[in-house]
Amino acid sequence: MTDDGAARTYSIAEFVSLLNDAIASAVGRGVWVQGEVVKLPTAPGATGHVYFELVDREEGRQATLSVAIWKGVWGRITRTLGDSGLELCNGLKVRMFGTADVWAASGRLSFKVSDVDPRFTLGDLVVQRDATVAALKLDGRYEANRRVPMPELPLRIGVVTSATSDAWADVRKTLLDSGIGFRVLVQDARVQGDDAARTVVAGLRALDARDDLDVLLLVRGGGSKADLMVFDGIEIASAIAACRHPVLTGIGHERDVSVADEVAHAMHKTPTAAAVAVVERVRDRVRRTEETWERVAARAVALLDERMRRLSLLEQTVLRRPREVVRLEERRLAALADRLRLLDPVHVMRRGWSITRDAAGRVVRDASALRPGDAIVTTVANGDVASTVTGSTARSDA
């Protein structure tokens, strides 16, 4: 293109000033911009200013806007978010108010933030959370870990947490103070920040692959909604749902309920509460076992007492039995003696009866067997009478 001299030539500074005038004219006192926070530093720089980026990701395309929050504004922004339980962090979706200009020294457009809308972020977190829960319920993962049976004596415990955190210290102290011989294996993980989801999932999978554990604990102390939002993500929830072992959670404070809590076998208010739940389960099982043995012992004593009572009665019966047998036999013998005495002919003859025998000593039972002149002997009660038959008469009806 040839220079016809009609178009004005600007210096860089003049052109940047022109751009800034155009931007100021277009946006006026400021505009609201929404996007996802990326490249946020862990702390303000030496100047106290904070620089990061907002991005939009739609249909595979990405738009990026450089953001600056001046030192004087940063404290106010932090307090505004904190009042809603939020904290600016990477991955958080925000709606921010500000103006834009081009910095002449770098030629870079920057959006200078002066305010933030926490309600937008809270609403987005709710939407994301609801979408995650719906996805888990759709394919059955939401209830999966609650269907895993809890061992009666969970003495071998795997813990996923930051190994340098107060949460781990509280869990370890609770288990040690119980006096129960727990075996505890801790898997160190980041519980907030960009690497949290990956390390928590890796920790759960590593412990769940072991066959020498009874239960897994996923614990983290309190924090802002931004700190805890990783536990609302699909990655950790899916890892819990896939575990072969029951997973108990103790994440945040009493008021905090994450998606990870919802899909776990059981959720507890704090890390300490999760550890206490395991202790109480073991103690309850031990108590029920002792009560069972007490009932068994009581039953055994009752049975033994009954057997001893029966044995004592049997002993008394055995001691009395010989005397009773002797008396019974004596009565039987006396009865037999009476019967024998009744059969003795002497007793019959005392009533006037007699017995007659012939010369050969045979009892005469038939009168026709005797002949005149036969010698006979008649026995009466007190002696014998000898006589000679002179005649006999037999009766026809005898």
Question: What this model shows, in words?
Answer:
With 398 residues, the chain is α/β, with parallel strands linked by helices. The protein folds into three domains: 12-116, OB fold (Dihydrolipoamide Acetyltransferase, E2P), CATH 2.40.50; 141-283, Response regulator (Rossmann fold, 3-Layer(aba) Sandwich), CATH 3.40.50; 347-388, no CATH class. It has helices spanning 12-27, 71-83, 118-138, 166-177, 196-208, 225-228, 234-241, 259-263, 271-343, 345-349; strands spanning 31-38, 50-58, 61-69, 93-103, 108-116, 156-161, 183-188, 215-220, 247-251, 266-268, 355-358, 375-380, 383-388. The strands form three sheets. It has a five-stranded mixed β-barrel. A five-stranded parallel beta sheet has the order 7-6-8-9-10, sandwiched between helices. β2 (50-58) and β3 form a beta hairpin. The chain is rod-shaped. It starts with 11 loop residues before the first helix and ends in a 10-residue tail after the last strand. The mean pLDDT is 85.
Shape: rod-shaped
Strand content: 15-25%
Number of domains: 3
Number of strands: 13
Helix content: 40-55%
H-E order? HEEEHEEHEHEHEHHEHEHHEEE
What oligomeric state do these chains adopt?
A: single chain
Distance between the termini: 180 Å
Rg calculated over all Cα atoms: 57 Å
- What is the fourth-level CATH superfamily of the largest domain? Response regulator
Number of helices: 10
Mean pLDDT: 85
List unreliable stretches of 5+ residues.
none
Largest sheet: 5 strands, mixed, barrel
**From the helix content, strand content and strand pairing, which structural class follows?**
alpha/beta
Q: Would you identify the CATH architecture of the largest domain?
A: 3-Layer(aba) Sandwich
CATH class of the largest domain: Alpha Beta
- Biggest sheet strand order reads 1-2-3-5-4
CATH topology of the largest domain: Rossmann fold
